[in-house]
Write the structure tokens for this entry.
Amino acid sequence: MITHKFPEGFWWGAATSGPQSEGRFHKAHRNVFDYWYDTDPKAFFNEVGPNVASNFYNDYEDDIRLMKETGLNSVRTSIQWSRLIKDFETGETDPAAVSFYNHVIDAFLKNGIRPIMNLHHFDLPVELYEKYGGWTSKYVIDLFAIYAKRCFELFGDRVKEWTTFNEPMVVAEGEYMYQFHYPLLVDGKKAVQCIFNLNLASAKAIKIFHETECARLGGHIGIVINLTPAYPRSEDSADVAAADFAETFKNKSFLDPAVKGVFPEKLVEVLTRDNVLWDATADEMKTIHDNTVDFLGVNYYQPFRAKAKETKFDDSKGWLPNKYFDTYEMPGRRMNPYRGWEIYPKAIYDVAINVRDNYGNIPWYISENGMGVEGEEKFIGKDGVIADDYRIDFIREHLEWLQKAIEEGSNCFGYHLWTPIDCWSWSNAYKNRYGLIALALVTQKKTIKKSGRWFRALAENNGF
Ligand code: BG6
């Protein structure tokens, strides 16, 4: 019996990205992760890098057929800037890359899967960092606009839904604050400029998209933001203030400009007071203001629990948002021990209601949610299938809350799991597996997990 029904036409899908699935075969340039791996392989789990990844470059036809078997009606992946573009300044494309992405898009369509194409998934071409300073440079934004335009021209006849960036906040955090993306810097001022520039780059790409034939024929463009709702340790005003700033910095820095076209006043006030505000012109602000998203993708994995600062902020490395909050380890919280992330399904409801009430109930979908587990081979049953019941439970629990929010009017049109086929997880490489389809790293054999079969029934029933 189906107890949880979803709206007609709901997107049941999964998300991956170019750099995490394709492998580096025939790539014109290196992205920041390719470069980091080439120069410091020890920084990656078991020293496994992105060179082969899940071999999607060679296996895409079979992979997409397998995805179809898990019932997916939509899949997001990303185009790699470092693959598609030969010459960043002129926008000249690499013919082999154009042909590859054409084939991939056609294979999705042939299998009845809606392709959603993302333009940037943490994968800045490294030479744009070395030459111009990467996402802190305004010139790189112009180069991104050239690349975005080429993508829309080349693939917009078949790809109807686009997203500009995946988790832009993670780029600022990883590259400029917490050292988990190359260039591994700690520089809060640069992080703030990076936040502004990524918002501007997104708005410029949206502007270009809205002038294309694809948009005129009903195509849409959005952004994928990781939302990690901030909850205070207690009702004490200092804890509440700490959570409030964490919410503003971590979530609203992208959510507000993307949907409302403006930055939160509170954020601007604090950054101005601390003398770290971005450099921006009135024209740039207008571009952000005038070019908001058609829809929103929300990646939700974990909440952020905040408390008032208990120790003095160590400013030896300059400004960081942590000046205003500490992370709170809530006693009794449910954890995914492999990834070290809290499991808190109700936050998906809170996100949905927040979008409904504070962001004009814009059309939105869960663009990522999922559970990375290490050592899944120990769950292989006699039938050779990984019995990942924990993943099924995880999805079901999140969907229960999501469905409740939809019933209460939140305008959510889909749910995408991270990820269709186990893929390469940055410096965690293949430690934690997220897929509906297992990848045997040595043989590259791909096998549908129990969750993949369950997901198919979920999609066919449009509920569970
Ligand atoms: C999201 C990213 O942050 O989470 C993905 O968009 C990533 O690229 C996924 O792989 C899971 O996180 P991780 O760090 O375990 O790979």
In short: The chain has 16 helices and 19 strands. The mean pLDDT is 98.
